[in-house]
Design goal:
- The complex is a heterodimer.
- Chain A is mainly α.
- Chain A has one domain.
- Chain A has 6 helices and no strands.
- In chain A, helix 2 runs antiparallel to helix 3.
- The longest helix of chain A is centred in the N-terminal third of the chain and has 30 residues.
- Chain A is elongated and about 60 Å long.
- The two termini of chain A are 27 Å apart.
- The mean pLDDT of chain A is 90.
- Chain B has one domain: Lipid/polyisoprenoid-binding, YceI-like (Lipocalin, Beta Barrel), CATH 2.40.128.
- An 8-stranded antiparallel beta barrel of chain B has the order 1-4-5-7-8-9-10-11.
- Chain B is 15% helix and 49% strand.
- Chain B is built from 2 helices and 11 strands; from the N terminus they run H-E-E-E-E-E-E-H-E-E-E-E-E.
- Classes of the chains: A mainly alpha, B alpha+beta.
- The interface between A and B is medium-sized, with 14 and 11 residues.
Chain lengths: 140, 177
């Protein structure tokens, strides 16, 4: 389970990073405001990859400690932490030579949800859902 | 003939007096910086304009009249910028500019000091600003640091003690007109 959770974390981190980079390009072409000083390609990829890795380790730990309820708690914690993390770009103080700092949350806030979205999207490919008895088709 | 000579002499005398009483005028270069820092916020004002007439040898004719565009404030945070130009703080809709007009410039130690009226948020107050003047050929730099208490101008929520004190750092490179 640990290997699968960790692999899921890494792959979802990379997927989130690619999505964030695409969003960064789209945002720049729309607003023409350059935030590359604070959101470089390396920092975006590193942040999403670290997020994915932490999610993988967290999932494995909760699964191990809480067994069946571990996944539910993990999903709640992951989403709550993603929401809480948007305070960082909202309160961020950018270098003073960056124009239009009011547009920064529009770039960074959606990116904070990409790791969770990537995780939930890819999870069925790495970790199979437990099918409860009452979910099984009749007669199985 | 006498009349012509007298007229020329008068003109010459007037020109000399006029030339002597005008201080050097300076154009503000674009790489100026107006920084502020306090307990509530810190940042810069990006738009600074005005006229600077300053001659070390003719202080009586020297004067400063400068204006800062309040909406050009940048604290590095968009929400804070919006809050700063709002009604509780600078109220930029009603008071779009910060204005300083000098009334007296004097030598102070190795530097200078300018006394004048600072108008912020519609409140005028006389202040004295110490500054340094470093000339270099046709260019020069004015720089100075001083404190203002935002409570005196009704900016923001009233703060007690030193909480309302804002440190202003001014760096203005100029070229001779």
């Amino acid at each position: 389970m640990f290997k699968r959770a960790l692999l899921l974390g890494i792959v979802s981190g990379i997927l989130a990073g690619v999505a964030a980079l695409i969003y960064d390009k789209v945002y720049f072409s729309t607003t023409r405001v350059d935030f590359s000083k604070v959101t470089s390609t390396v920092s975006i990829l590193a942040a999403t990859l670290i997020g994915g890795l932490l999610a993988g380790i967290g999932y494995w730990l909760l699964y191990k400690i809480m067994k069946g309820k571990g996944e539910v708690i993990f999903n709640f914690v992951f989403v709550i932490l993603s929401f809480a993390s948007i305070l960082t770009p909202l309160a961020a103080k950018l270098p003073l030579d960056i124009e239009f700092p009011e547009l920064f949350p529009g770039l960074a806030v959606p990116m904070h949800f990409f790791p969770a979205l990537a995780w939930f999207t890819l999870k069925p490919l790495f970790i199979q859902q437990t099918v409860k008895d009452y979910d099984k088709p009749a007669g199985v | 003939m006498k009349k012509i000579v007298l007229s020329f002499a008068t003109l010459l005398a007037l020109t000399a007096v006029f030339a002597f009483s005008i201080a050097s005028s300076w154009n503000i270069k674009s790489d100026y910086s107006i920084k502020f820092s306090g307990e509530d916020a810190s940042g810069i004002f990006k738009t600074f304009t005005g006229t600077i007439n300053f001659d070390e040898k003719n202080l009586a004719a020297s004067n400063f009249a400068v204006t800062i565009d309040v909406k050009s404030i940048n604290t590095g945070n968009g929400m804070q910028n919006k809050h700063a130009i709002g009604a509780e703080w600078f109220d930029a809709a009603k008071y779009p500019s910060i204005v300083f007009n000098s009334s007296k410039i004097a030598k102070a130690g190795t530097g200078w000091q300018v006394t004048g009226t600072l108008e912020m948020r519609g409140v005028k107050k006389e202040i004295t600003i110490p500054f340094a003047f470093v000339p270099k050929g046709n260019e020069a730099v004015f720089s100075g640091t001083f404190n203002v208490n935002r409570n005196d101008f009704g900016i923001g929520k009233p703060a007690s003690g030193t909480a309302g004190v804002i440190k202003i750092e001014v760096y203005v490179p100029v070229t001779k007109k």
